[in-house]
């Protein structure tokens, strides 16, 4: 069943002071099924976050429409929960209070809100930390609170914008397992932004590769590997390499543009072949 339809979407930013405009992408067409896990993958600046923000209703498309079911997106809504790279928890509230905070707008009793929050905190394995404050938690734990907070609102769709981008490798790997578990348990539709090829192959049903200058969808890759996936398996490595080779030119384009005279092909290939990150922090 179709869940999200992105039709002919374009985004152009206007700079009113300099009277210039910049089109991030145009003609984005994408259909996502109910319960599907889709990754938006691409080099820095290709517009992954912009597209996710348009689906979230936090930003407006310059042209085209986004529909959730039959309803056109015109702003944020409770049918979509967003998880950002930074957890953005309220430091003066406990873990439990942070999760129940968003539920206050829903017309449910305090007890029911707490029951719901506890249920999702259990799902992300934080039952022991309900009374802790954000500064007492690790980065990975904070991100799990923010996932629980989004899930407690019971959105149909979870929009995740590089949720593990700021975490160390071990924590990231643990959260990959958690997010797969959550997805299997809840059956949510997930749109997941990343520039990490391995992460996208590990998690998604389908990878939507985006390129830049001009921005758009380059290719879609269905990932038909059985779960749990093994990054060491030949099929996994083959898919990573197929994606990487397709995008090598894209990354080079971005790096050349951003580094100008400092660009060095040898250095670039060393930087990006080891972890298959596509132009992070350049
Ligand atoms: N509010 C804004 N005004 C002007 N330009 C913007 C605005 N937001 C984003 N951009 C530009 O749009 C382009 C796409 O940005 P976006 O953050 O969506 O890319 P991304 O693919 O998510 O990158 P990254 O992986 O680095 O987060 C960039 O060139 C960025 O500078």
TrEMBL record:
<dbReference type="GO" id="GO:0016887">
    <property type="term" value="F:ATP hydrolysis activity"/>
</dbReference>
<dbReference type="InterPro" id="IPR017871">
    <property type="entry name" value="ABC_transporter-like_CS"/>
</dbReference>
<feature type="domain" description="ABC transporter">
    <location>
        <begin position="4"/>
        <end position="239"/>
    </location>
</feature>
<keyword id="KW-1278">Translocase</keyword>
<dbReference type="InterPro" id="IPR050166">
    <property type="entry name" value="ABC_transporter_ATP-bind"/>
</dbReference>
<dbReference type="GO" id="GO:0005524">
    <property type="term" value="F:ATP binding"/>
</dbReference>
<protein>
    <submittedName>
        <fullName>ABC transporter ATP-binding protein</fullName>
    </submittedName>
</protein>
<keyword id="KW-0547">Nucleotide-binding</keyword>
<dbReference type="InterPro" id="IPR003593">
    <property type="entry name" value="AAA+_ATPase"/>
</dbReference>
<dbReference type="Pfam" id="PF00005">
    <property type="entry name" value="ABC_tran"/>
</dbReference>
<dbReference type="InterPro" id="IPR003439">
    <property type="entry name" value="ABC_transporter-like_ATP-bd"/>
</dbReference>
<keyword id="KW-0813">Transport</keyword>
<dbReference type="InterPro" id="IPR027417">
    <property type="entry name" value="P-loop_NTPase"/>
</dbReference>
<keyword id="KW-0067">ATP-binding</keyword>
